[in-house]
Design brief:
Blueprint (H helix, E strand, L loop, with lengths): L2 H4 L4 E5 L11 H8 L2 E5 L31 H20 L5 H10 L3 E4 L5 H9 L7 H12 L10 H7 L2
Parallel strand pairs: 1-2, 2-3
Length: 166
């Protein structure tokens, strides 16, 4: 008997974005099979996919992104191609970083992104992702382009990764 049969889950929260697609390998198929939803955190890659973090960004000591390998200067330089590709696609749609949110929304009806923001104008922009039309051809094209761009840098420092894999 599975744990889900004894104590059914409604949703799982996990990072899932154009920058972190690993849940597609095992997590998403399992969730779909069991009828469990996904609440996708960091759909904008902690601001990186929105283009708000650049090579010039200086993280203050309160901003934990400065400790993440993906936010090292070298990784930000290497991963810029990913942001450029997303921005190019967004321009064709007359959109912004909404594309990254719309991509998550278009994956499965039971996947819901939770973008974090403290700015009202970003909230309005994020809401706009719900009306952005992304076709299956758009999804396929975007995925094809991004698949050619290797993501540089681990998501979290080694000591945090050890804790999450236990």
């Amino acid at each position: 008997m599975s744990l889900h049969a004894v104590h059914p889950l409604t949703a799982l929260q996990s990072e899932y974005s154009l920058w972190w697609k690993q849940p597609e390998e095992e997590i998403l198929p399992t969730l779909e099979e069991l009828g469990i939803g996904l609440v996708s955190f960091s759909p904008l890659g902690k601001g990186y996919l929105a283009g708000s973090v650049t090579e010039q960004t200086q993280f203050d000591k309160e901003d934990n992104r400065g400790t993440f390998p993906r936010f090292s200067l070298e990784a930000r330089k290497a991963n810029r191609a990913l942001v450029d590709a997303i921005q190019s696609f967004a321009a064709k749609k007359q959109a912004t970083a909404q594309v990254a949110l719309a991509w998550v929304l278009a994956q499965k009806p039971w996947i819901v992104p939770i973008p974090g923001t403290s700015k009202l104008e970003r909230l309005d922009e994020n809401i706009g992702a719900t009306s952005l039309e992304i076709t299956s051809d758009d999804l396929q094209g975007l995925d094809c382009i991004l698949a050619k761009i290797p993501v540089v840098g681990d998501r979290y420092p080694a000591e945090v990764q050890c804790m999450t894999t236990r």
